Amino acid sequence: MRAVIVAVFVAFLISLFTTPIAIRVFTRLKAGQPIRAEGPVMHLGKKGTPTMGGVVFIVATVIAYVAGHLALTTLPENQIAQVTPTITGLVLLGLMVFSGAVGFLDDFLKVRKRNSAGLNKRGKLLGQMLVGAVFGVIALYFPSSFGLTVGSTTLSFIRDIDALEVGKIASVIIFIFVVMATTNGVNLTDGLDGLATGASVMVLAAYGLIAFWQYRHWCADEAYAAGGAYCYMVRDPLEIALIAGAAAGACVGFLWWNTSPARIFMGDTGALGLGGLIAGMAMSTRTLLLLPILGGLFVIITMSVVIQVISFRTTGKRVFRMSPLQHHFELAGWSEVNIVVRFWIIAGIGVAIALGLFYSEFLAAVG
């Protein structure tokens, strides 16, 4: 627990105090966010606000991860062996960093071209697929000393569902889809000041709780599992909790400057980085099918775009005034702060339901 707390506070403080520096640097570099001409008129006032702020909380998460492991050196040696840097850390941080790198390229091209086009859709999807494939393979082909891999060859809800064995190749393909879905889901949500950041804090904090609970009831813990108690067959749960806590803390520090009126945007750098990390959390905690509930807001906003596109292409009519969904309510006259707070409530409801389902399964098993 000590390591997780250290990681949270280090990430929070780094993000809180270095974001103003990033604001000045990106402003000096004229790395302002281009605004879509077809977007809501009220967004024109945001033109020139520095973007690529995701760099701050991605770097803060990595540094906090190192700090968390330094805190572990005070533990007894037999415990340190379970939580030293592992393939799990490589996969989760790799997903965050390299998904963020795809977004950074997109942001860089937007700033350079002075328009909102950026990296073309094919290039962005190809980058997401490549990141998902590389780390999906690493997650499935490098077992620990306990014989556990970061990912699983079965689909999972609260834990692996043995009846849904799909094999390694199909598991990698499914994970690629999850990475693409989550990165684009967070990216679509990132349309209003603080919306995606606040929602991501809730999801990451929830994964931190899930992972720490799994650590406390870990099958690899011989002292715990020897009594025949209910346990979770996952790899390096404390490592997962540490990274989830670090990322959540970094996002809270960033949110101080990103909330309305935002002084900096996370850009695709941050949105894709967070999406990649959340996908990794779902895979490593064996809660893949729980993700649509846990990230309910991302699903709703993504579906609003899908519905809008299908409706327009098939009937020529739009269901919403504008998609993603948050812009529909902007054009309906809702204030930006009202939309963000109410959407945060929706995100919180999804997280609460998911945590309730996770814990109820444990109660049913031990009851």
What does the model show?
With 367 residues, the protein is an all-alpha fold. It has one domain. A two-stranded antiparallel ribbon has the order 1-2. The radius of gyration is 20 Å and the shape is globular. The relative contact order is 0.16. The model has no long low-confidence stretch (mean pLDDT 91).
Layout of secondary structure:
Elements: H1 2-28, H2 54-71, H3 77-83, H4 87-113, H5 121-141, E1 154-156, E2 160-165, H6 168-189, H7 195-216, H8 222-225, H9 237-258, H10 267-284, H11 291-294, H12 296-315, H13 325-331, H14 336-366
Antiparallel strand pairs: 1-2
Helix pairs in contact: 1-2, 1-9, 2-4, 2-9, 2-10, 4-5, 4-10, 5-6, 6-10, 6-12, 7-9, 7-10, 7-14, 9-10
Mean pLDDT: 91
Number of domains: 1
Count of β-strands = 2
Counting helices, strands and paired strands, the structural category is mainly alpha
Instruction: Profile the largest sheet.
Output: 2 strands, antiparallel
The N- to C-terminal Cα distance equals 26 Å
- Fraction of residues in H or I helices: 55-70%
The general outline is globular
Keywords:
367 residues; mainly alpha; two-stranded antiparallel ribbon; 14 helices
